[in-house]
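In keeping with the milestone schedule agreed at the kick-off meeting, the structural modelling team has produced records for the first pair of proteins. Each record is given below as a sequence line and a structure-token line. The laboratory manager (R.T.) confirmed that both were archived under the project's standard naming scheme.
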Amino acid sequence: MHLEMMDFQFALRNLFRQKARTAMTLASIVFGVVGLILSGGFVEDVFIQLREATIHSRLGHIQIYKDGYLANWTKEPGKYLIDAPNIVQAAVAKIPGVVDSMQRVTFFGLLNNGKTDLPIIGEGVEPAKEAAQFGSFFFIIEGRQITAKDQNKILLGEGVAKSLNLPIGSFVTVLANTPEGGLNSLEFEVVGVFRTFSKDFDARAVRLALPDAQELLAAKGAHAVVVSLANTLATDAVASRIKAALAGQAFEVKTWFELDDFYAKTVDLYKSELGVLQLIILLVVLLSVANSVNMTAYERVGEFGTLKALGKRDSDISRMIILENCLLGLFGATLGVAVGVALAWGISAIGIPMPPPPNSNAGYTAYIRIVPSVLIVAFLIGFIATVLSSLLAARGAARVPVVEALRQNI
């Protein structure tokens, strides 16, 4: 134990003695660790903001339909109306983690401005509940939100309003098929234009108050019950409880993740890119540290020759070099994590203005998230890269013959 403590003290003394080389190696380690923390935190923020935008602008956390709705509702929409959505909502409200639920009616139709028809996707919603639970990423860019007291008022997606050149206060006619196969139409006043994180959705979507949508379709009930949760991470667990509560009643329960494959594809893409970035940073740190360690070892050949002449073995020299770099890797990785976290906090306090992502018209402010798993991976990469780079240098320096090594002192 005493010998190991002496080796530790000797290695620590050597690091402080070689100040320039130690500082160069530390800088390489810190740079790599900080790069991993910032890139990993940025990607995590992309995941979180895209997830919440998907949930709070369109889909909600969970949606409940009649069994077979998603596969067949376009052919027979009337067949898949939930006749008593209030009963479903009452059952859902008893489940822990559920904040609220709301009814929606969905239909395909035509929007006419007096001159042109445009195919649209219509949603009949409960305005107050939708605004309270899912309003954070549902932006009203012109006019106002519809309310429960409104009659024959309509919100247009940004793309719809631009396509038909419809200002606030203009009147439009919506035509839709009833469940019995008839055609019905109602006139609406445009009171607002909305924008979500989906450009394609905004180009075809309109929103009405639920009673107006039911009058248009000449039908009661709802196509979906949309559930809002207190915690997005509890979505799967709550969905399982809802399925159990509704077992045997011919309902299908879908989470937001199942309804939107764009998010899953985006996550897979960014994870692949982050993996490549981590590999590149690992190689950069490995090569930088290896170069610094090799130069340091070469400059200390004379010192190693003296130690050998005093009775030290090759294995002792190798162990000393590896121990020094273990300490260096530990210091560098720890310092890198501290600097990375400090920079992440500083950058997040300011925010990073971002342009609209693909398939969106809405820009956003990005942040650097502090992710424990990313901190651990970054620390391990910085430490392991340093230790690995020292192995070859230790082996080469220890094998220099003692006579040749002593010549370096002349």
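The second protein of the pair:
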Amino acid sequence: MNHTGSARQAGFNILELMITLLIAGMVLGFGIPSFTQFIANNRMAAAANDLVTSIHLARTEAVKRRSTVTLCASSTWADADPDCDAGGTGWLVFIDANGDLSVDGGEDVIAAHPPVAEGITFAIDAAALPYLQFAGSGFPQTAAGGPGIRNIQLCDARGDTSTGKDADGNDVAAGRWIAIGATGRPQIYRLQADVQGNPVGGC
């Protein structure tokens, strides 16, 4: 049997389309900020973990080699002959046999690390060259360049904000505080009260 005329086409009418777009907009409006927060949290955690990993490496190598090992800021971390400098945002871990905060001939560079993710800033309690030096015992020691780092504060554009609650109902900070204890072991603090109350001064 032949049918004449146009068949009815199934699809959205204008009201259904508007409702669909409204719902999609609401989902995106709630989802994008959460995703942005998720990315920022991961970047902050990665930066803190990278620093702590390098501190552990420096301490472990000092004990293993029975030699002085230094971790320091460096802007030449990627060079063939890298060295420490106060303006560096990357860092080095190297054998520093004479403890002079400089990579001299015959002193091996154990690790060289690039700067952390853009937008993350550091504040430290060291007045001069940012460094942390370990004796062969694994304990921190002071070099001739002045006191070494004992506190590192990491912040980003979120400043002093809470990113949620931990299992005990405490606010978790956007930033992080890394404290190096008397034995040289680093600890990461992430609660807002700790980060804002640290010796460097908070975000």
